[in-house]
Structures
1.
Amino acid sequence: MAKPDPTDKLLDELIAGKTPEEILGNEGILKQLTKRLVERALEGEMTHHLGYEPHAPEGKNTGNSRNGKTAKTVIGESGEMEITVPRDRTGEFEPQLVKKRQRRLPGFDDKVIALYARGMTTREIQGHLEELYGVEVSPQLISAVTDSVMDDVAAWQSRPLDPVYPIVYLDAIHLKMRHEGRVQSQAVYLALGITLEGRKELLGLWIGENEGAKFWLGVMTELKNRGVQDILIACVDGLKGFPDAIETVFPKTQVQLCIIHQVRHSLKYVGWKERKPVAADLRTVYTAATVEAAEQALAAFEMKWTPRFPTIAKSWRSNWVNLIPFFSYPPEIRKVIYTTNAIESMQSSLRKMTRQRGAFPNQESVRKVMYLALARISKNWKRPVLDWVAALNHFSVVFEGRI
């Protein structure tokens, strides 16, 4: 039989007969214990610094000794509390748990950053901290805390990348930002890579006023400068000039236009009553077993619908070279390259986190929120996107010598 833990007995005695308010409240036991623990830890740091315990005889004539304490108000997860920090006579003591001029206990900044990463605005975080912990924190302090991640953002955005990515998805999400006193819609460009291990990796994010092929050319150039030597397949939406921008930097890359984007674009020209049959006939094109079967299905679609909707078949014909690469692969690979859903699902999570924010004050705030939100999202990217061993073997044959 296990011996009873003396700590449990002590805790039971501390909370016996106490109300939740007396335990967790602003002046409760938890806050008092936190204060005592911090002060005891600081005393321990001072003992280590001086080399002897308080009042110990070996401290005589050492040239330095304790010299009272300084009161200091700090903010922690339990709210504001006043602690005392020991001093030494020579002023050489540098506490580590609560450093000089530090006003926030360890863990508090992480709490603020976590709330920011969930899409909460500075004002919302301010209200949340006051309501939950009784802590009054200025918007300027919250901004200063969240600004601390900007060095991480810069390091992440410029980090070296792998030489080869079998698949890269490229797309943009549009957000409202203030620019020169006006609220404008600006594009946040995202590049999501699939590594040689089959796992997702966000390669970077870029901000521009409008989504355009010229901007994407700059993105591709940056990826190359950061170490990317080859991309086997680039999955993109139907932006005009996009394939050219990619092939300018990575001439061997196979460009796959998103079939779902192509279908959505096609249905814009169709009234509600006929959307269902038109969509069904388009489905016979992109679900065909082979390129030849797809061409026959497109020809049949053209004969049936061109008199009513001439733009649709014309659009498919003009993009055909970049719509059909996925037919060269088995079904398990097709389903991950014929659409940009992999990056769109990530964008959907980002929209949920940013929807309540309205307009961002500047591009820097967008980078902070996006970086922190993406860090949370990427924690779930642990499994390969498909049966990666089989996929890699297939890529090794199709792209011989490039893996």
2.
Amino acid sequence: MNPLKIAKWSAGIAFLVIALSIVGCTMLQPPSAVDFHATPTKGAAPLRVDFAPTATGQAVSYAWDFGDGTTGNGPSVSHIYRATGTYTVSLTVHLSDGRVAHATQDDLIDITGLIVTGAPHGPIVWLDRSAGTIFKGPRSGGTAVTVAQVPPYKSIRAIAVAHGKVYWTTYSDVERCDLDGGGHHIIYRPSPAKLAPIGDIAVDAIANKVYWAEDPIFNPENPLDTDPAEIWRADLDGSGAQVWANTSLWNYSDNTPSVMTTDAGNHRFYWTATRTTSSYPTPSVDATIHWADTSSNQAQKHTAFSSLPEIGGLAVDNSIPGGIPNLYWTNPGKNEIWYGYVGRFSKSRDLLMNTPHPEAIAVDAFGGKIYWSSGEGIYRANLQDGSDKELIYPGVHADALALSN
């Protein structure tokens, strides 16, 4: 055979082998595919939208672009759209084998208008437990005024606000008054046979219910004869008061629910339970956030988050329509504020911000603000990412916070 033809033939065979090798590697390499879905995709602002991805391959990171100038990270995320318009959403996924996959859905989110009615607009209300005083002031800061002064012997414990009234617990009863200080009433007082110290309080402004916690009752003559901690529920005027949850059925029997809040729009009641896990060389606690369906006459406990450090305050942004409301809680010992959501089949939590010794907490979902107290006073910041932090009431002491509608 002609040597020139042999050389050409050999070169062709070599090229074919290389090409087949490349094709074979490509065919063996799994495709990099990513997609996502959003719920809901249309509504009035502020609108919470929940995003969930699907990816072929093992994902190591998720980067979201919500189309309104903000971004996010994580597999399942929630985002609040606050302005009218149509938004294109993009997702970039980095896979464990080094590949990168992209997905974009054009004009996915349609914000048709603004909600102008029903948005909370009232003052921020706080409790100075040591002074026995309830205060209120504008949400942006300014002059604080006294709402109610409780005698020291009654030992005020906690506050909640609904329908222009502030509710509070003392060591022995549940009381309320108007936010201008008038209309004071004791709406519940245990009978002499059941003088259980009363703890935290929460209000469901939609179902018009008030909840409070009662500490365990110990019999000093018989330490084994102990009534467990309980959560009570009544109408806002105190009528129909009854035990809604007996914690001995499903919780640490020696610990009272310490912090409570309601997600009225989704018929959920949240509370925390804390136990001491060690005392040497330093005290250590194990906190859990539970929830129950408020449409039930007797609470059935579910666990939202467990194995948490100390919890100082708990709030939920339940006034945003659409999507899954977020919980927010403070960790004073670690200087952190966290948030998370609990869906039907999934849950997620993440760190919102670091700030020195946060205690009580309140959330204005419509205004996009989060409020918290510390030893320096009352702060607020953007709810979305904790930015634009400002001290709005310097020097005040706030053991509990609430926002009035």
3.
Amino acid sequence: MNRLFTTITLLVVFAILTSCGAKDDNQGLEFAPNMYHSVGYEPLTQITDVQAGDWVNSDSDSYGEYFNSNPNNPHSMNMRVPPANSVARTKNGLLPYRIPKDSIDYAALYVKNPLDSTAELVASGKALYEVFCISCHGPNGQGDGKVGVVMMGVPAYNLGRVKDLSEGHIFHTITMGKGRMYPHGPQIPIENRWKIVRYVQTLQNQ
């Protein structure tokens, strides 16, 4: 009885395994095939062997399953090397901000806002402020936002030394964070941070 049961079990397993095979127009049975046959190129890896992963192929092309080089680029590279001496900029030509977090005094003295203080730009800064800043600093920069009230100690923009903070100091604080304020550089593009600075300066003068 046990031998018969074992034989039937092996036959069933064999039938299941062979039914998953792929050939020509029959793609076989696959679990999440979009994970196996991604059309995207992996920028940080480059497998140039066209037969790599050929043993797990379930399609009829000439490439192995693990081959991921880009034949449309020189040397089949995926990640292209930037042009020599080039630096990434925004569409308006702003350079990345590279001043270290512990250099806020330097930023306060030397970092200047590259954007003009137009009414349109300040209005755009206000809209951004109401998304990212109002919860702590409040609608008028008094530190009375819903989160700010709970945290306590969020300073008003128009009082004390905060009133005289330079645009470089404000921008550096938004970017790198300070004290209990987390850095917003990863969340807000550099141009939008400068717009917020322009609006914060209007709150300093209220």
